[in-house]
Amino acid sequence: MRDPWPALSYPDFAATQHLLHMVLQAVGKLKLKEPFEPQWGEVPLWLSSRGLATGPISYSGGAYEVTVDLISHQVGCATSWGSSGHCDLAPMSVAEFVEQLFDILRKAGVNVSINLKPQEVPNAIPFDEDAQPRPYDTILVNAWWRILLSTQRVMQSSADASRARHSLFA
Fold first, then answer.
1. Where do the structural domains in the chain lie, given as residue ranges?
2. Strands 46-47, 84-88: parallel, antiparallel or unpaired by DSSP?
3. Whole-model pTM above 0.70?
4. Which pLDDT tens digit goes with each residue over 67-100?
């Protein structure tokens, strides 16, 4: 079993963090009902056994889902009509990633658009204009995700314990 709380130095992670953050913003925006409204409360990405996922997104009488696999370092799209595709997460620009993301969506029969401006980021560069090559360190990204999983486990056990205490007094 891997260390559930791996070391993660922010100075080491910072360079990779920008690309990962923009990847997750672009994927997350696929869930917005109104693409130009940055109201994120109802559109989280869900932790999964391999990374993060949108969950099913209604589309054209069916659904599609986008997964960000932080073990194999791929972003995939699967549809309820059987189409699928993926692209690798690797050193690249944000613009290259977004182009690949929309390419796999189109190939799967999903034609959607998003607001290409990152939200709540200082000096935001639209995804399609962020052409600077960015590093992607698979070891650090995987460590970040395992810390998220461990944090979720701690928060869930705390919530379960709180519910149990309250039910004793109900």
1. 10-168
2. unpaired
3. yes
4. 999 999 999 999 999 999 999 999 999 999 999 9
